[in-house]
Structures are given as C-alpha cells and as structure tokens.
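Name: Lipocalin family protein
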Amino acid sequence: MRKQIFVLIGVATLFTVAAPLWAQTGCTDSPEDPTVLLALVAGGAAFAANLVRFRRRKR
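Structure predicted for Lipocalin family protein:
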C-alpha cells in the first residue's frame, strides 16, 4: 500500500512538472527547424570529407 502511494505521488509530480514544459513546444514548431539544418550541414561535411579522401587516394 505504501509503495502505491509513492508511485502515485511520483506520477502526479511527473505530470505536474511535464505539463508546463510541454507547453513551451521546444524546437518542434520552429520555423528554421534546427534538426534539419544540422542534418544538412553534417551531410555536406561528410560528403566533403569523403571527396577529399577519395582525391588523395587517387593520386
């Protein structure tokens, strides 16, 4: 019985803390969508690094 009370209080605290944080929405509706930009930059850097390595091997 005592464990159930602690679990109930823990879940209630979790939802009480999470509700205001969820209302801020973070980056999910950002107009520039930083995750996509980061993926594009990382993909371009990986492509450039592989291109340089390929050209060095070719010589």
